[in-house]
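Intended use. Records like the one below are meant for learning the mapping from a protein sequence to its folded structure. Do not use them to infer anything beyond what is encoded.
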Amino acid sequence: MSFEEIFYEHSPAVYRYLCFKLQDERLAEDLLQETFLAVHQQMDQLKEVLDLRSWILGIAHHKMVDYLRKRRLSTLELEHDLPSPPQKDSLELWEMLRELDGDARTIIYGLYVEGLTYAELAHILDIPEGTVKSRAHTARARLRRWMEGR
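Structure written out for the chain above:
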């Protein structure tokens, strides 16, 4: 697979993920470029990569964390509010996601919006797969209680 094919296939998901986490389209675009620069520089490692999408999203996640550390911003500061929903149809989703903390929000977003697996999210967030599963379970329970209370 060529770099161009990889970019065109995976850049939309990486951009959505970065926008979701950062709530800043310009910063997301900058980090998208840095992510794919790193992918290009590591093209010789592709044969060893088991899941290309989670590998690329992992790179994007680490680029974002590095940026935030350099700027001395905490992820929690950026995650208090969500961006406006992109479509009216997704308004309820955004309302529900506001009910969750940062990690749970990322996991639910990854599972149900991006269609990632537990293993992919574990790789991206650099946490054990069991932790992703338990946080997803807790988040779903919280969302269920929220929905019942509406």
